[in-house]
Specification:
GO terms for molecular function: protein-lysine N-methyltransferase activity. Residues 404-433 are annotated as: Disordered. This is N-lysine methyltransferase SETD6. The protein has 433 residues and is α+β, with helices and mostly antiparallel strands. The chain folds into two domains: 4-184 and 202-254, set domain protein methyltransferase, domain 1 (Alpha-Beta Complex), CATH 3.90.1410.10; 273-400, Rubisco LSMT, substrate-binding domain (set domain protein methyltransferase, domain 2, Alpha-Beta Complex), CATH 3.90.1420. Helices cover 45% and strands 11% of the residues. The protein is built from 18 helices and eleven strands. The strands form four sheets. The chain has a four-stranded antiparallel sheet, with no helix packed on it. It has a three-stranded antiparallel sheet with strand order 6-5-7. α3 packs across α7, α14 runs antiparallel to α16 (378-400) and α15 packs across α16. It is globular. It starts with a helix and ends with a helix. The structure holds S-adenosylmethionine.
Length: 433
């Protein structure tokens, strides 16, 4: 979290470099959120809050570093490494234009990269554990960055300042505070909206001083960054009453991703989801699995929407079809429909049960722990809210599936002949009289 003192230094630097902040906003400190901003008077929608000259955005385009390295493409083609290196360089260079901005930013993080193995164990079952990327980040540091730094020891001075700890800090600052800085005259988006796209579009990602002081909360966004040719302007998107916090959007990630990137969760997160991997559907026929993966993803995302995802139902149908059914599907080269028939519903039931069993605690256990949550550390509580949110989605989908007893009875009924059905109705009338 930024400190109040740090923000005062930031504000002086910001104003003396062409930034402007309107008098109707001020910094404020929020328990559990760190610093943020609030309105000092009632604001209408589309009110300008502060304006950031484009020259203050820190990116691979504005940092002078890439221009001083003829072989920059060795680094710029390596995903986030180039942008991280620019931040490291600006942090270390005593004459950096962004020195006071970078110094105002946090040095400690609660994002998952910094959790111990014991703490991470509390997230067992959540697929977020496969997305933390600590080993990959450290692999890039040692195999790409360190040799490059040594090759340019005349520029990267002192070499030992370019430590793994600084690499992690700068990576985490980008993860939790960067924006996609479009050149067009339109609204900006927080760089979290699409990890893969962000990876390929690192060139468009930038650190935006002052805009990154705003917090975000699911369903509460009331401001966004609007792009003008020379400046980025934080602007209200609805009326804000005096005293209310100004919230940007981080593009509404589920709690698991909030925790991974930003180190916090929302108490209620309408964007929570849970992933089911194709492995869990259980199919040993590799030819069939390959056929499926050529056509569909191998991970299916269940949300709080009532319906199961279409690709999940289709995948279950393919992976559980009999050999002859699968041959027919293969011959027609057409994916089965996504209608949840009885047999598929039965299989989905088992899959949801297996998915729930991947967590080390039950919903009931988590709920009672949450009720006594004064005992929990903030990380334990965040992990609890992530896994509980995911399990509740699984349970809600499970509860909406047709009951097996009813469905098998329905199925039997359909198999009965008309005569049998008359007999059955007679029997039922007898039973109920
Ligand atoms: C873009 S920065 C916002 C400024 C930050 N509060 C600070 O003091 O530096 C994002 C960070 O703010 C905190 N944050 C933002 N929204 C939050 C929320 N709804 N609840 C808890 N922490 C939040 C998280 O630590 C997150 O990584």
């Amino acid at each position: 979290m930024a400190t109040y003192e740090g923000l005062k230094v930031l504000l002086d630097w910001f104003k003396s470099n062409g930034g402007s902040v309107q008098p109707h906003v001020e910094f404020a400190s929020y328990p559990d959120m760190g610093c943020g901003m609030r309105a000092t008077s009632n604001l209408r929608s589309e009110t300008e809050l502060f304006s950031i000259p484009r020259s203050l955005v820190l990116s691979v385009h504005t940092s002078p570093l890439p221009k001083s390295l003829p072989d920059w493409s060795e680094i710029s083609t390596q995903g986030w490494v180039g942008l991280i290196l620019c931040l490291m360089y600006e942090q270390i260079d005593p004459a950096s234009h962004w020195k006071r901005y970078l110094n105002s930013m946090p040095t400690c993080f609660d994002s998952l990269m910094f959790w111990s193995d014991d703490e991470l164990r509390e997230l067992q079952g959540s697929s977020v554990l496969d997305k933390i990327g600590r080993e990959e980040a450290e692999g890039s540091y040692y195999s790409i960055l360190v040799p490059y730094l040594s090759k340019h020891a005349d520029i990267f001075k002192p070499l030992e300042a370019y430590s793994l700890a600084l690499y992690h800090r700068c990576g985490s600052l980008i993860l939790s505070r960067s924006f996609h800085v479009s050149n067009q005259d339109d609204s900006a988006s927080d760089a979290s909206d699409d990890d893969d796209a962000a990876y390929h579009e690192v060139e468009t990602v930038g650190m935006v001083p002052m805009a990154d002081v705003l917090n975000a909360k699911s369903g509460s966004a009331n401001a966004c960054l609007v792009y003008h040719p020379d400046a980025l302007v934080m602007t209200t998107t609805k009326e804000i009453a005096a005293g209310e916090q100004i919230f940007n959007t981080y593009n509404d990630p589920p709690n698991a991703d909030l925790l991974r990137r930003y180190g916090h969760v929302d108490e209620v997160n309408l964007n929570d989801n849970v992933e089911i991997s194709a492995d869990l559907i259980g199919c040993k026929d590799l030819e069939r699995v390959d056929w499926l993966l050529d056509r569909l993803d191998d991970v299916y995302t269940l949300t709080q929407a009532e319906d199961l995802p279409e690709d999940f139902i289709t995948a279950v149908k393919i992976l559980t079809a009999s050999k002859s059914e699968f041959r027919k599907i293969q011959k027609a080269d057409d994916l089965p429909d996504d209608v949840l028939d009885e047999a598929t519903a039965m299989r989905v039931r088992e899959i949801l049960q297996m998915r729930l069993a991947q967590y080390s605690s039950t919903i009931e256990e988590d709920e009672s722990l949450l009720a006594s949550s004064t005992m929990l550390t903030s990380r334990s509580r965040a992990a609890l809210l992530v896994r509980l949110g995911e399990k509740r989605i699984l349970a809600a989908h499970f509860a909406r599936l047709p009951m097996p007893e009813l469905s098998s009875r329905e199925g039997n009924k359909r198999a009965l002949s008309r005569k049998d059905q008359r007999e059955e109705r007679k029997r039922q009338r007898r039973d109920s009289s």
